[in-house]
Amino acid sequence: MVEKNLAYFPDFSVSPRIDQVGIEERAARFTKRSIKKETKLNGLLLTLNMIDLTTLEGKDTVGKVQQMCYKAKHLHDAYEGLPTVAAVCVYPTMVSVAKKAVAGSGVKVASVATAFPSGQAPRDVKIRDTKYAVAEGADEIDMVISRGKFLEGEYNFVFDEIAAIKEACGSARLKVILETGELVTYDKVRRASDIAMYAGADFIKTSTGKISPAATMPVTLVMLEAIRDFYYKTGRRIAMKPAGGISKSKLALHYLVMLNEILGEAWMNNEWFRFGASSLANDVLMQIMKEKTGVYQGKDYFSLD
């Protein structure tokens, strides 16, 4: 478990204050960049390779998960040379199904855990949930923080819980979901980001995708700047995952422009940046086929998974 050393860890009650107007104006400027031709196509292909294709429904079945995994490996059979997505994300009970379905493809299997999406469970239950997913073969764990404890100012509780889950992950990478829509303010998003990174997160992630608002560009900008500052202080690189609400390729390209400007080329790959989105994949495929053929294909040409 991560041990707190007060000479190293900041006082989380006094994390940097965020200029709301400045953040929102800067984020808006990224949406005004024009991306053309070859650069656009390269960005679209990169976006595909950064997607965590996801199904997190109570009605998930073995067949549905297998179909999603097939799509993860074969995004569009009519277009040779397309990348795979980065990962598929499922509930712990579906990890073994997904692991078998993507075997040999290079696609990772991520699993939500820790009483996703609410996080309302005792810590020992969350740890067992995590260990079960890892034992089933999960390469990555997406945990949710205890937002109630965070909003009560119990920052040490949140830190210790993340550290305990990180230990339970073993060799699996840990994505820490802040559920930024429930944190409300940019100051709280920044504080939660700092806590997660110092507690051992490999990724910080905006949202579960179950509430609105989910990912937004200003919130993601706050988190990217937190990652940058953490890297300058510690030399440790943290990955980022905006999730929920990103369904159009044009918006995804704006996120990549922002990522490149804030964190640079080293983060421009799926080891260090992901999109948590499923409907995004089809829109990106439509745009890629438009760039390749000059005409749009209808949505019926793509599976809905």
Percent of residues in beta strands? Answer: 5-15%
How far apart the termini lie comes to 37 Å
State mean pLDDT (0 to 100 scale): 91
The succession of helices and strands, N to C, reads HHEHEHEHEHHEHHEHEHEH
Low-pLDDT segments: none
Helix/strand/pairing class, anyone? alpha/beta
Number of helices: 12
Biggest pleated sheet:
8 strands, parallel
CATH superfamily: Aldolase class I
The coarse silhouette is globular
Strand order of the largest sheet: 7-6-5-4-3-2-1-8
Compute the CA-based radius of gyration: 19 Å
How many domains? The number is: 1
So, CATH architecture? Alpha-Beta Barrel
CATH topology: TIM Barrel
What is the CATH level 1 assignment? Alpha Beta
Q: How many E-type strands?
A: 8
What does this protein look like?
- By secondary structure, this protein is of the alpha/beta class.
- It has one domain: TIM Barrel.
- Helix content is 47%, strand content 10%.
- It contains twelve helices and eight strands.
- An eight-stranded parallel β-sheet has the order 7-6-5-4-3-2-1-8.
- α9 packs parallel to α10 and α10 packs parallel to α11.
- The longest helix has 18 residues.
- The two termini are 37 Å apart.
- The relative contact order is 0.15.
